[in-house]
Amino acid sequence: MSKPLKQIHLAAHFPGVNNTTVWSDPAAGSHIEFSSFAHFARTAERAKFDFLFLAEGLRLREQGGKIYDLDVVGRPDTFTVLAALAAVTDRLGLTGTINSTFNEPYEVARQFASLDHLSGGRSAWNVVTSWDAFTGENFRRGGFLPQEERYSRAKEFLATAHELFDSWHGDEILADQATGTFLRDARAGAFVHKGQHFDIQGRFNVPRSPQGRPVIFQAGDSDEGREFAAADADAIFSRYATLKEGQAFYTDVKSRLAKYGRRPEELLILPAATFVLGDTDEEAAELAREVRRQQVSGATAIKHLEFVWNRDLSAYDPEGPLPDVDPVVAEEHISRGRAQVRMYRDPVAIAREWRELAEANKWSIRDLVINTGNRQTFIGSPATVARTINEFVQADASDGFILVPHITPGGLDPFADQVVPLLQEQGVFRADYEGTTLRDHLGLAHPDAARRTGAPAERAAS
Ligand SMILES: Cc1cc2nc3c(=O)[nH]c(=O)nc-3n(C[C@H](O)[C@H](O)[C@H](O)COP(=O)(O)O)c2cc1C
Q1: Counting atoms of ligand 1 from 1, which one is nearest the CA of 228?
Q2: Sign of CA dihedral 176, 209, 260, 8
Q3: 74 CA distance to ligand 1 middle (Å)
Q4: pLDDT tens-digit series, residues 28-63
Q5: Are strands 66-67 and 62-63 parallel, antiparallel or unpaired?
Q6: Between the CA of residue 390 and those of 65, 70, 159, 272, 406, what are the distances in Å?
Q7: CA distances from 253 to 264, 267, 269, 397, 401 (A)
Q8: Of ligand 1's atoms, which has the minimum distance to the CA of residue 271?
Q9: By CB atoms within 10 Å of each CB, which of 29, 30, 235, 445 scores lowest?
Q10: Of 279, 303, 304, 278, residue with least CA distance to 291
Q11: For residues 199-222, average pLDDT
Q12: Higher per-residue pLDDT: 157 or 189
């Protein structure tokens, strides 16, 4: 008997500050006005996507003492945006990235439980540990948490938040509340948590929300990060969107679940992915090349190289050969607030590899960055893109994709109009929402399901 086809999960990533947006395109809109968020969310919902996704960046990033021009487009607060979007959408999940390093569990649990109520059970929390001391300065006097303590805090942060979500004991309490005159049940909202990172007790003042707990995402890529996800997350936002890398990551993470008593389908793998559509594959390939050239100007290419070389390369011609000097290996990095953590472990080796690659292909600095950087994941006619996405998911490179268009907010519309119907025709993507909550869309059990129905079946109707 052949395996039944997996259903694809799709989400839309509103890009925030990034290197993806083609700002020179007249269709590129504001990244801060509500109309952009609303357009994007409505398109995702029209296409029956699982959720909208927001990443988090908490400080304007710098390089060589200057602010990245991309960052000045602004990045408004996640909860404010998601709460506003809850009001203009009906079914779409709302996923916010909130770090566990600079916040407090009570505050974050309250925000997500509130969002879950206001949206009728559509909230999700991407728990990240976040980058560096530079960002930490925004929050603590000269202080931040050392890298090696961040996952220990993240684990306890999430466990504490779960204690808060669970502090309303479920149906009995809600029934009491409905008759509610006076302190019917002394347990309501009561919590005590004493641990290494948090020593808190009191009463949580948001009743059990429709999903019980928000859906939990995780994004860090280290061994520790993957273990954290295997133990506690419902989904991973990953960077591995190619077939081979995706399969390797998928196998690695899913194989970690058993030791936590979990089944493979309890953790979804959802990489970020980009796409370029054309009427034909050739047209799309041509357009993809143009988009890459617009994404990587000469100045952007030099900045990208400086990030690896960790030195000022402004004297180099982006249309010329790669620097023959080696990267500077030092604690101090030319870039602040960017994702250097573990990305470029051995810059000298990378520089050597890139020089060889550039020489073999006769590439300039800019050509190299265009060709080795974030090339678009899916390029082709709608039929090709739909087929490829489905092949990737059925081949266990992922359980779906979090799509980042290169134009905001309109870049998702062609995908919604041209690719989604083909996936629906193939029977691998929903024709309409079947449930009301994000857990329903993702096929995740409600935390109370076992208690309500005696089995981890689907969510009981509320
Ligand atoms: C795909 C991906 C997306 C991430 N997105 C964010 C983000 O939006 N905001 C943030 O502060 N950190 C983000 N992180 C950083 C993680 O929180 C973490 O600090 C970093 O990856 C270091 O942890 P690791 O060594 O486990 O990868 C992201 C990491 C990955 C791999």
Answers
A1: 26
A2: positive
A3: 19
A4: 999 999 999 999 999 999 999 999 999 998 888 888
A5: antiparallel
A6: 44, 33, 35, 15, 21
A7: 9, 9, 9, 12, 16
A8: 1
A9: 30
A10: 278
A11: 95
A12: 157
Interval between CA 388 and ligand 1 midpoint (Å)? 27
Ligand 1 atom closest to Cα of residue 238: 1
Segment (H or E) for 365: helix 365-372
Give the total residue count for the chain: 462
pTM beyond 0.85: the answer is yes
What are the structural domains, with CATH classification, of the chain?
A: 9-169+195-274+377-461 (3.20.20.30), 282-372 (no CATH)
Best of 20, 53, 130 for a ligand 1 pocket test (most atoms within 8 Å of beta carbon): 130
In this predicted structure, what is the pLDDT of residue 457?
38
Residues framing ligand 1 (Cβ under 6 A): 55-56, 97, 99, 128-131, 219-222, 224-225, 237-239, 341-342
Select the more confidently predicted residue: 225 or 332.
Answer: 225
Under 8 Å CB-to-CB from 352, ≥6 apart: which residues?
none
- At 252-304, the pLDDT tens digits run 999 999 999 999 999 999 999 999 999 999 999 999 999 999 999 999 999 99
Residue 166 has what DSSP assignment?
T
Q: Which of 180, 176, 159, 157 is nearest to 168 (CA)?
A: 176
Residues 6+ apart with CB under 8 A from 126: 53, 55, 56, 95, 96, 97, 98, 217, 218, 219, 237
